[in-house]
Design brief:
about 60 residues; alpha+beta; Ubiquitin-like (UB roll); two-stranded antiparallel ribbon; globular
């Protein structure tokens, strides 16, 4: 198996939760919000209900 990943295809996403936890992810540009929510749930030590998560960027949902 050979994987080629261009660095220009990655973007850094910083996430801060309402309870103050911060995460940084390097995500491929084609991924959607659902993918980021899954990454948050996977990296959180607490149970995270994906349906309950709300994404806000610059004050907009």
């Amino acid at each position: 198996m050979h994987l080629v990943l261009r660095l220009s295809d990655l973007q850094e996403i910083n996430v801060r939760t309402n309870c103050g936890k911060e995460f940084t992810f390097h995500v491929e540009r084609g991924k959607d919000v659902g993918y980021v929510k899954q990454k948050i749930a996977k990296n959180s030590k607490e149970f995270v209900d994906l349906e309950e998560q709300e994404v806000v960027l610059d004050g907009k949902r």
